[in-house]
């Protein structure tokens, strides 16, 4: 990834304005942070630093540079290992049966699926959120990660990786160097990725239905799938939405606000510089996060606040010891067009397809505005789990979503006023506050408790 693209990507994530500051030596007025006298956006310029994702030298180079900046920091070797291991290896490390599978979408993307195999059991599919991957369900470890809890309850656990993330970067025709590879948003994930994944699982296991649990964007893609492919809804016994995202008019994340406010000039800039991928995961980012976000480092507090800036503040639920692991796996990559789509939803207040402008919209959709997604096609039983301190899935937007869905079995508020968007997958008390309810609803559905509702 070119340095110019790095600047734009980091700019978007942190909503900082350093990249276009009139005086590069002067600190930005808002939403900025630095390490001693070195601004984060200057890090790729360190002497000897190279962007070669396949090079083993980069870890030594970054480690040396970071040590010289921050001094000696001690990181638990187990934390380092967990931040580097891929999802299948994390599962194996903790003694669970691990499998890797691949599903091919109708438009040629090769998706990598991760499985904690419990052959013959009811399958459950977990779908991650924006800039995330299958690792989100296991990185907190046994007794904490939802994937492990589901396996212990007797489920056959499957985790998807949507197109463009760390694990799903292959295509039958394109490579990630082709602009065409990145010509997608969450619309294509719902229309193609989820159907391909669900059909693959059901065909392999000879099951008729499965459970579905999504977080954030993983809920949005499900609603899109049902809108565009309502027949797929019949293959899901119960859909549970953790921090459900569809309408984001009231989202108060500075990142979403930024994307909405600057959506048109930003789209032009990204197209001009050829920045098709947003914040890819690479070896440099992984090692940088391991060192900068170690809990013994003076910069650890900064890392926490950056995460909170994206999704809401809840220091009590943020396991600071695990930050190097979290940031070793996230961000896991996305398309810049995908990020622009979020900005459009915030700006319009609608849950609808990508806006190409009124001329191209008329050619693609037959109308000057993109069509809204058809929530009345979501025939599946749906359970909505939300919180008060969620900056992305706000209570007002979740309520609007509930009103549009025809078969909601319940809207469940997490009993912690500070619980935020990321706590649904990484929170210290997620098991007690959320996952026990998720498991109970699955059992109730299988017993038929909701059939007469």
From TrEMBL:
GO terms for biological process: lipid catabolic process. Residues 1-21 form the signal peptide. Residues 123-427 form the AB hydrolase-1 domain. Coiled coil: none annotated. The keyword Hydrolase applies. Keywords: Glycoprotein, Hydrolase, Lipid degradation, Lipid metabolism, Signal. One of its GO terms (molecular function) is hydrolase activity. Belongs to the AB hydrolase superfamily. Lipase family. This is Alpha/beta-hydrolase lipase region. The lineage of its organism: Eukaryota, Metazoa, Ecdysozoa, Arthropoda, Hexapoda. The gene is LOC101889354.
């Amino acid at each position: 990834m070119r340095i110019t693209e790095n600047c734009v990507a980091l700019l978007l994530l942190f909503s900082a304005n350093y990249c276009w500051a009139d005086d590069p030596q002067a600190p930005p007025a808002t939403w900025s942070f630095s390490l001693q006298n070195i601004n984060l956006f200057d890090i790729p310029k360190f002497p000897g630093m190279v962007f070669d994702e396949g090079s083993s030298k980069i870890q030594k180079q970054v480690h040396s540079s970071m040590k010289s900046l921050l001094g000696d920091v001690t990181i638990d070797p187990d934390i380092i290992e967990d931040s580097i291991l891929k999802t299948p290896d994390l599962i194996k490390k903790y003694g669970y049966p691990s499998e890797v599978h691949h599903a091919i979408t109708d438009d040629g993307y090769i998706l990598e699926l991760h499985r904690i195999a419990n052959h013959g059991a009811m399958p459950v599919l977990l779908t991650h959120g924006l800039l995330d991957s299958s690792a989100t369900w296991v990185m907190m470890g046994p007794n904490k990660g939802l994937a492990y809890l589901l396996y212990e309850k007797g489920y056959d656990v499957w985790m998807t990786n949507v197109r463009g993330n760390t694990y799903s970067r292959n295509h039958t025709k394109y490579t990630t160097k082709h602009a065409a590879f990145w010509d997608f948003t969450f619309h294509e994930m719902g229309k193609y990725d989820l159907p391909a994944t669900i059909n693959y699982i059901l065909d392999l296991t000879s099951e008729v239905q499965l459970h579905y649990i999504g977080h954030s964007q993983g809920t949005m893609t499900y609603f899109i799938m049902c809108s565009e492919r309502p027949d797929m809804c019949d293959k899901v016994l119960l859909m549970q939405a953790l921090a459900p995202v569809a309408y984001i008019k009231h989202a108060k994340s500075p990142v979403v606000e930024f994307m909405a406010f600057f959506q048109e000039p930003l789209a032009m800039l990204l197209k001009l510089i050829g920045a098709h991928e947003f914040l890819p995961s690479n070896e440099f980012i992984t090692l940088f996060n391991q060192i900068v976000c170690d809990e013994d480092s003076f910069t650890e507090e900064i890392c926490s606040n950056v995460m909170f800036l994206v999704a809401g503040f809840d220091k009590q639920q943020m396991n600071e010891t695990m930050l190097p692991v979290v940031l070793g796996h996230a961000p896991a990559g996305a398309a810049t067009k995908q990020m622009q789509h979020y900005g459009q939803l915030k700006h319009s207040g609608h849950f609808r397809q990508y806006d190409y402008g009124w001329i191209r919209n008329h050619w693609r959709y037959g109308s000057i505005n993109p069509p809204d997604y058809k929530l009345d096609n979501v025939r599946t039983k749906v359970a909505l789990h939300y919180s008060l301190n969620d900056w992305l899935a706000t209570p007002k937007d979740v309520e609007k979503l509930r009103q549009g869905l025809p078969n909601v079995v319940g809207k469940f508020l997490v009993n912690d006023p500070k619980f935020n968007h990321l706590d649904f997958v990484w929170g210290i008390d997620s098991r007690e506050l959320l996952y026990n309810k998720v498991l109970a609803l699955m059992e109730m559905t299988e017993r038929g408790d909701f059939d007469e509702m």
